[in-house]
Amino acid sequence: MSSLRPGDSFQKEVNITQGLHAFQDNHSVFVSTFGDNTTYNFTKEIDASNSPEVLTPYIKNVTVANGTIEGKQSAVAYVTLANPSIQTYSSKLFVHTLGTEGSFYPASIRPGGTRTIKVELLDDDGQEIAGEARLYSGNLTEADGGLDQMGFVGTAGEQTETWNESFEPVRPTWMDSHYEYTNKTHAPSFGEKLSGGHEIEGIPLAYLVFSLFGVFVVVRRLR
After folding, report:
1. How deeply is 60 buried, as exposed, middle or buried, from its count of CB atoms within 10 A (0-12, 13-18, 19+)?
2. Number of domains into which the chain is organized
3. CA distance 126 to 149
4. Which residues cross the membrane (predicted)?
């Protein structure tokens, strides 16, 4: 504690960055002493999804796995979230994949904490699954509410590949013309779609049916 005599002055620099809320533009700083107090107001816009100075919740990792939902076997994604800030954010999680139009979960994380959410996926379990996870506050259709976005692709029991993406607002499943995830690199082939995930020794069932049909046609022509 500093003691000031008449005519003295005192200066101290305090970093208030982590006290700022990423979704507020108007901020206040309250300063008090034994003899007086005052409040300083200032305006600062913060990009919650891309702010290296102000810490905000983010998606730490995504892992594709086999699991159970309400006692039934299902493909799932374990999404780990972290909140390194001292603020509490009312956040939500939305996950899209090639086979899942959208899975929504409340996803608030306590300040300084982490949590993992098991997300139900409608993709065939045991198959390679590609998708993206969005963490946001407010409306999914507004960029201002975005916190983080992560793309992923993986198969249960193997390492899931993840990468950071810029937050892209989209229309959720309960709205008309809602967003559908696409991925040209990992999209299922025509035969895989017809097979519905059924394979024999790793070969989509539709391809085997087509092959047998071709053999049948050749045999009939030879007779």
Report:
1. middle
2. 2
3. 24
4. 202-219
CA–CA gap between residue 149 and residue 94 (Å, rounded): 10
C-beta neighbour count of 122 within 10 angstroms: 14
- Same-domain check for residues 93 and 192: no
Over the chain (223 residues), the average pLDDT of each successive run of 10 is 74 76 72 76 77 89 96 96 94 97 96 97 93 96 95 96 97 95 74 51 53 53 59
Co-location of 79 and 153 in the same domain: yes
**Element (H or E) spanning 221, and its range?**
helix 205-222
Distance CA 74, CA 88 (A): 32
Query: Residue ranges of the alpha helices (H) in 109-204?
Result: 190-195
Cα–Cα distance measured from residue 192 to residue 78, given in angstroms and rounded to the nearest whole number: 25
d(CA 156, CA 206): 23
Q: Is 176 helix (H, G, I), strand (E, B) or coil?
A: coil
Closest CA to 85 of 107, 118, 52: 52
> Do residues 156 and 66 touch, judged by C-beta distance below 8 A?
yes
Contact 82/136 with Cβ under 8 angstroms?
no
Here the tokens at position 118 are: 């098991």
Residues spanned by the domain of 205: 188-223
Identify whether residues 107 and 203 lie together within a single domain.
no
* Dihedral sign (CA 95, 102, 169, 45): negative
Nearest Cα neighbor of 81 from 112, 120, 50, 123 is 112
CA dist list (Å): 70 to 34, 55, 74, 76, 106? 59, 35, 9, 12, 18
